[in-house]
Amino acid sequence: MTEIVFLVEDAPEGGYTARALGESIFTEADDLQSLREMVKNAVNCHYDDRENRPKIIRLHIVRVINFYFFQIMLRQLENQVFQL
Hints:
- A hairpin with a 5-residue loop joins strand 1 and strand 2.
- Helix content is 38%, strand content 29%.
- It has 84 residues and is an alpha+beta fold.
- The protein has one domain.
- It has two helices and four strands, in the order E-E-E-H-E-H.
- The termini are far apart.
- It has a four-stranded mixed β-sheet, covered by helices on one side.
- The protein is elongated.
- It comes from Microcystis aeruginosa NIES-2521.
- This is 2-oxoisovalerate dehydrogenase E1 subunit beta.
């Protein structure tokens, strides 16, 4: 394996979680810099054999934005504009 991809998301209680796609590797940390180190350590622990260890670790950072809230705010603003 030459590359492994981790899905990084905001943790509900704060900080970040990282989950490997296609492998059973999971870790978490308070900030992104710490998370990078935790991911490296988790990969090293998961792959005992250095030759089979992925050469590239990719972090795919996903942020979820609540568009429903923004749609409600936009409707309220539109209603205010039309009421003028």
